[in-house]
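[Q] Does anyone have a clean structure-token version of this?
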Amino acid sequence: MKPEIDTLLRFPMFKELRPQELAAISNLLAVEDFAPGDVLFDEGDLGDRMYFLHMGRIQIDRQTTPGHYEVLAELEPPAIIGEMAILREAPRSARGVAMKPSVLWGIDRDSLLDLANTGNAASYKIIRWIAASLSERLSRTNDKLIEIYSKPFKSIMELKERLKEVHPDIVSVGMDSDANE
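[A] Here you go.
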């Protein structure tokens, strides 16, 4: 079931595409079904594909210690997953797992680059959207880092509380919450 153009327009990445550009992208999308617990990709896998979540819910997480995962996001439609894979050939930075029956449309890096080589503007618009999205995330990450470094005691105490949830018996930083900053 290839996505209809109206359905693709739910995804912000496609808002600027013309109907013929959307049709070209629709032809490149592969339908992929995942059952609860199925892994879309593992942390460390080669990133060569991005996904558009049409139905279901996907959890993005990272392994913090053996057997323990930190949930980074729980995504519901319309969500775009793994877009960094389109810009760079590098290992995945997280794992994607279906939390309930899910239908995704996948497009691999080579297909999008082949489309770019034909001069189709859709590929350039998509790459521009990905770059803008990643730039926004980088800006938010920088803001968080500034907050962490500007208030080190508060950051250490928040980390201590998060670590207690994973390993309550091993966390001790030699500080208590009554200390001054």
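[Q] Thanks! Anything notable?
[A] The two ends are 58 Å apart (CA to CA).
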